[in-house]
Amino acid sequence: MSLKIRLSRGGSKKRPYYHIVVADARAPRDGRFIERIGAYNPMLPKDSEDRIKVDVERAKHWLSVGAQATDRVARFLDAEGLLKREPRNNPQKAEPGQKAKDRAEEKAQKEADAKAAAEEAKNAPAEEPVAEEAPAEEAAEAEAPAEEAPAAEAEEEKAE
Predict the structure, then answer these.
(1) Lower CB count within 10 Å: N or C terminus of the chain?
(2) pLDDT of residue 82
């Protein structure tokens, strides 16, 4: 039988209150327990003495018997000096996931494309005089058939 020192929730809705209990690891969270060794009231301010109450002697006994404390209870017992808890370090905690990295990459690519297009637009006005000559020639060619069309209409009218 593996023993756990853990929190068992009590209190009403949105007003939590926890009992620190020793229970079989297979028992439900708020179910059967072996012994209640303390209490935790998260509604009280952090500097309040009544926020965490632990029966130190009983906690020592259960730890010596082989009971394992959960993370939260280990913090409480570490504050009491009963258990040495190693601080955890997760350097990848703030690193975004793969999908977020992909989205950021796509966004950066779009911004780079937009900047390149804006630079091309700035550079294009300097080259426009060359570009304007070609449309003028095309316009002249386009007008020529238009001039022929009225002449063709005039010939048709004469034929009638």
Answers:
(1) C
(2) 84
pTM: 0.55
Residue 159 is assigned to a structural domain of this protein:
no
Dump pLDDT digits (tens) for 88-103. Answer: 788 888 888 899 999 9
| Euclidean distance between CA atoms 38 and 53, whole angstroms | 5
Q: Give residue 101's domain range.
A: 94-126
Give pLDDT < 70 ranges for the chain: 125-160
Task: With residue 67 as reference, give the H or E element that holds it.
Answer: none
Each residue of 121-137: pLDDT tens digit? Answer: 888 765 545 545 555 55
131 within domain boundaries: no
Q: Strands, DSSP E only, in the chain?
A: 3-12, 15-24, 35-40, 52-54, 68-69
Tally of structural domains, the chain: 2
Does residue 43 lie within any of the structural domains?
Answer: yes
Count CB-CB contacts under 10 A for residue 51: 15
Q: Are residues 109 and 41 in the same domain?
A: no
Q: Which two tokens stand for residue 80?
A: 């009491």
The string over 122-149, giving b where at least 16 C-beta atoms fall within 10 Å of a residue's C-beta and e elsewhere, is eeeeeeeeeeeeeeeeeeeeeeeeeeee
